[in-house]
C-alpha cells in the first residue's frame, strides 16, 4: 500500500496525539500521521503515551515513510516548546501542525465537576494553544505553514458533553482568530469537525453488549450515507487542508460527518425505523 501522490512531498509535519487508544480500528491522529507520511511528509509523532506513537512510526516506516516519536504531555508549555524544537532539529523545519489531541467527557452543566471541566479544557484546547504558540513563529519566519485543528460536531450540536462541547467550540473560535492573525504571515488555519466516527477510543468507553452494538449501528444510520466513518475519513480531510491543494482555504471548519448536520431528526425517522432498539 505504499502509494504516494505527493500532496505534501518534502514537508515536515507535527501530529499531536499521533498514537491511538489500543483496540480495533484506528484513531484520527494515527491515521492522519500515516496519511501525511504516505503523501510525502516527514512526521513527528507526538503522544503522552509514546508506546502508542511507536506503533504509528512502525506503520509509517513499513511503507517507506519517515517519522520520529516525541514523548510529551502537551498540556505543559515546556513539552510543547521542546516538541517544536525537536521537529526542527530532526527534520530541518516545520510546515504542518495537526492539533489532534482530545477526549470527550459526558456531563451536563449541573453535574460536571470543576476539575473535570478544567481537565477537559486542558486536553482539548490548551494542548492546541500551546502547540500553536510555539509552531507559529517557526512558520511565520519562513512565511508559510498550515495548521489543522481536530474539533468535533459536538461544538455545533447538543449532546450532553458540556465541557467537551465548549472546549471544541472554543477550538473553532481559535481557528478563526489564528487564521485572522497569521494569514499575512502565510499561515493557514482550519479545522475538521468529525461526526459519529468509530475509533478504538469510542469503542473503549462502551461495555460490549447489545446496547453498544445498537449505538455502533446508529453511528452509521444517523448520517445521510448510512455507512460507518472512521479515523481515515478525518485523516484525508486533514491531509487535504494541510496540503497546498488547499492554499486558498483558511479559517474554515470542514465537517466530516456523513451529512448529519444537514438533516433534521424528523426527516431521518423513516430510515431509523428499521433499527430496533434493544430492550436492555
Ligand atoms: N472518536 C470520535 O468519535 C471523535 C469524534 C469527534 C471528534 N474526535 C476528536 O478526534 C481526536 C482524536 O480522537 P481519537 O478517538 O482518535 O482518540 P485517541 O484517544 O485514540 O487518540 C488520542 C491520542 O492523544 C494522546 N494524548 C492524550 N492526551 C495527551 C496529552 N496531554 N499530550 C500528548 N498526547 C496526548 C493519547 O495518548 C492518544 O494516543 C480528538 O480530538 C477527539 O476529540 C473524535
TrEMBL record:
EC numbers: 1.1.1.163
Gene3D superfamilies: NAD(P)-binding Rossmann-like Domain
GO BP of this protein: fatty acid biosynthetic process
Keywords for the protein's UniProt record, in alphabetical order: Oxidoreductase
Residue spans crossing the bilayer: none
Molecular function terms, GO-annotated: cyclopentanol dehydrogenase activity; quinone binding
Family named by the database record: Belongs to the short-chain dehydrogenases/reductases (SDR) family.
PANTHER family recorded: NAD(P)-BINDING PROTEIN, SHORT-CHAIN DEHYDROGENASES/REDUCTASES FAMILY MEMBER
The protein, known as: Cyclopentanol dehydrogenase
Organism in which the protein naturally occurs: Nocardia aurantia
